[in-house]
Amino acid sequence: MLSDKSFPVIEATLPLVGSRIGDITPKFYARLFGAHPELLDGLFSRSNQRNGNQQQALAGSIAAFASHLVANPGTLPETVLSRIAHRHASLGITEPQYQVVYEHLFAAIAEDLAGVITPEIAEAWTEVYWLMADALIKLEKGLYAAQANDAMWTPWRVAAKRPAGTGSTTFVLEPADSTPVTAALPGQYVSVKVTLPDGLRQVRQYSLSGDAGTSRTFTTKIDDGGEVSPVLHRNVQVGDILEISNPYGEITLKEGDGPVVLASAGIGCTPSASILRSLAAAGSDRRVLVLHAESTLESWALRSQMTDDVERLDGAELQLWLERPAEGTPAREGFMSLHGVDLPADASLYLCGPLPFMKNIRNEAINAGIPATKIHYEVFGPDIWLAN
Ligand SMILES: Cc1cc2nc3c(=O)[nH]c(=O)nc-3n(C[C@H](O)[C@H](O)[C@H](O)COP(=O)(O)OP(=O)(O)OC[C@H]3O[C@@H](n4cnc5c(N)ncnc54)[C@H](O)[C@@H]3O)c2cc1C
Ligand code: HEM
Predict the structure, then answer these.
(1) For residues 372 and 349, what is the distance between their CA atoms, to the nearest angstrom?
(2) Strand-pair partners of 208
(3) Most buried among 64, 85, 89, 95, using CB within 10 Å?
(4) 140 is catalytic
């Protein structure tokens, strides 16, 4: 909770700092990477720095945190913190790094707001930073402690690599050493670290797409303009070793016996497929509605796995949307919409796909009576939705 001294200062300066924070963060990253170029090798994404996504996410989350403290004194924005903590833990962020980030962030704030910033303002924002940092450090420690091992990266061998719909590939991994393996929950992801052709190491997250537990199978869609997915698709072969993190991610199937709606678009089907697989493996009698949208039937990466699992479950039903319908396959034409879909009352909704898709489906679900607290979504990148 913010101190009585800082509360009015944050309330008064939130609009100013909020409006400047988009300019502060590029200055911050320039300072951070100037002093610590090693953070770009195997930790921060070079592409996110180039396309500005990470700046928006970090800036947005600090502004969102400060707004929350002002609007809801005495509480913390649990969902925001949990998402960031899982992402951080999947990257191996450590407590001492928060001091490094603090120093460079506050030097950038002082530079950007020179002439406006007073010691009182700097002190109040320092308090906000450490309230957020301490909450994240605590969550991240808990996440690390829950793992079956204390290794950040472990070697896994590619046991199989197979095409999975146009432009997608599934990688099945097996442990390449004896490190104890943490059981993953359906819907979780792992970080994968690869070395690029220029020698730089880069990390990306991939949702587990098959069995959860101690299996590690993921499915990637190639992004031709990207750095990591082309290397995975073109360079990584069966028998190669990949460095993988422990599993993280808070968008997992919540226990219970209520109905589940899995709505996905494109490669966003991976966490849905893993949740569906766990329901099928358990012979669940929950009602499960699988809604999936694709451009074409051929591009649906996990089509046979998902249709098989739907068939294995008495209570499951699949509805498909195709931009270009395929003859003989029942599907609605165009983008997914919940209009005309008979949503089970009291359903939990799990969403994954491009942001415009998720925003639209979330709005339609809320209009149809699903409470926001029962809608869970995974973003395949920095969460700009949250930031905005
Ligand atoms: C929790 C989570 C789960 C995920 N699960 C999956 C999954 O199951 N399957 C999957 O396929 N993906 C998944 N992703 C996405 C994945 O992590 C990668 O983001 C994706 O594979 C693209 O990585 P890349 O390295 O190939 O592209 P990147 O190098 O990250 O590039 C991303 C985009 O940025 C653009 N870019 C690069 N430089 C610039 C520039 N200078 N200006 C403008 N744009 C630029 C590139 O053109 C590219 O389109 C997940 C992400 C998260 C966070
Ligand atoms: C209070 C301090 C911090 C805040 C508010 C913060 C906020 C965020 C946010 C919002 C994201 C995006 C999460 C998502 O949407 O998936 C993120 C990602 C990330 N954070 Fe932090 N962070 C903080 C501290 C740190 C520290 C100390 C480090 C380590 C030096 C760090 C390294 C990263 C990295 C590497 C990513 C992934 C981004 C990428 O791949 O480019 N963060 N952080």
Answers:
(1) 9
(2) 218
(3) 89
(4) yes
